Amino acid sequence: MFTLFTHYQTTPLEQWVEALYEQHEITTPAQLCMTHLAAKLRIWVYTMDMNSMAVENNGQFSINVDRRLSPKEQWEDFLHELCHVLRHSGNQMAMPDRYVNWQEQDASAFQLYAAIPLSMLKKLPLPEHKNEMIAYLSEEFQVTFRLAKARIDQIQRRVLQGILDYEYQQYTQSQVGKYDPSKWSDATRLMMDKLGQLKSKGVLADGDANRIL
Predict the structure, then answer these.
(1) pTM over 0.85
(2) Residue 180 CB contacts under 8 Å (≥ 6 apart), including other chains
């Protein structure tokens, strides 16, 4: 799997998480724990018999982690709530459902990136078989089997998409010069003109045009 990381495409959020860890010199799985990360980010963490949540009081942030959960589940809940502290604002009770859903999706993605960072993952001797890999990462990063599987599934999808994008780019480049615009139909010419107008206005990027075509 390591050799395929060259086709893996990181998202802006993943890059943001990696930069956050680099800024605070978090470079090994052993540093990925609630107490260490909370201390680095100056966030107070406590545990109670209630659902995990982030709390803001006069500009000071704290995170309650449900102590009824297992240690691995507590760590995952902490990361989810940490995203709300670092990236979100406002009271979800007063937000439109669409915005609440976006925040929760963002926190879930952050959780995966922060729990198993790509920069650390690339340094590990990963087993060849998927189930063994998931079990290994579950212990190495102290996360549940469910989260480790979700991260590996995500990476495999990104690798596949990266390969497809690369192959498509190679194909389109090989076709340069083979198209004769003078032979386009009126419908094709009209579509290409519209794409050109969108690109000139900055509405459409080259990559977007390739996907449409």
Answers:
(1) no
(2) none
Q: How many helices (H) and strands (E) does the chain have?
A: 9, 3
Handedness of CA 125, 126, 127, 133 (dihedral sign): positive
Largest CA distance in the chain: 72
- Which residue has tokens 């943001």? 16
Q: How would you class 94 by CB atoms within 10 Å of its CB: exposed for 0-12, middle for 13-18, buried for 19 or more?
A: exposed
CA distance 2 to 126: 8
Nearest alpha carbon to residue 62 among 49, 73, 47: 47
Look up residue 114 and give its two tokens: 């922060």
pLDDT tens digits, residue range 103-139?
Answer: 889 999 999 999 999 999 999 999 989 999 999 999 9
Q: Running DSSP on this structure, what letter comes out for residue 96?
A: -
Residues counted in the chain: 213
